[in-house]
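[agent] plan:
  1. take the single chain provided in the ticket
  2. run structure prediction with default settings
  3. attach structure tokens to the ticket
  4. add a short note for the reviewer (M.T.)
[agent] executing step 1
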Amino acid sequence: MKIIVFGASGRTGSQIVKQALNRNFHVTAFARNPYGVHMLHPMLEIIMGDVLDHEKVHEALQGHDIVLSALGFVNPEHRLIGYYNIINAMKDLEIKRLIAVGGMGVLQATADTIIAKTPSFPSQYVSVSESHHKVYEALNNSHLDFTFVCPPNIIQGEKTGNYLVKPDYHPGGMSINSGDLADFMLNEIKDQAFIRKRVGICNAENSITQK
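[agent] step 2 finished; step 3 output follows
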């Protein structure tokens, strides 16, 4: 199986690449700065590219079975453009499976309200959450078998295996190690437990019980 990782040089992306290689996947790391991918491996290919370049995205996706994305954007408006490039290329190349990182604000606070629309949600994160929600809507309107993983604060750290997941709602804790986030995303390739769903995730320590 051959996977491609967008945002491969970031906190979560680098963990996905490392752990995927340990699982004997053939991995393509797509990054604006290929020198940020600090790995050499016979089963690793590194592609320099910008996800805003639709031709480069289409070219990079050819020959892959699974797409994983841990993209981060300085400009939230670029997020939807980047994901549209991925979605459209996947449609054209008939690649079905996408596992991507979103944000906690996209999850439901109640049956009728997402977390980003609650009064206590920090105002500085509203625009970022809005851009994540637009991506979620684009995925929902696509033909793709997507999983949209929506973490709270992502902390640089290795896999512990001690984390909670919950469809559509946040499990309670306020952080997740990048290694655990990567572990869940790679497990989901085989498990396929959350096809076309949002997923809340957090480390189990210091989590609070959801009612």
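[agent] step 4 note for reviewer: The longest helix spans residues 77-93.
[agent] ticket updated
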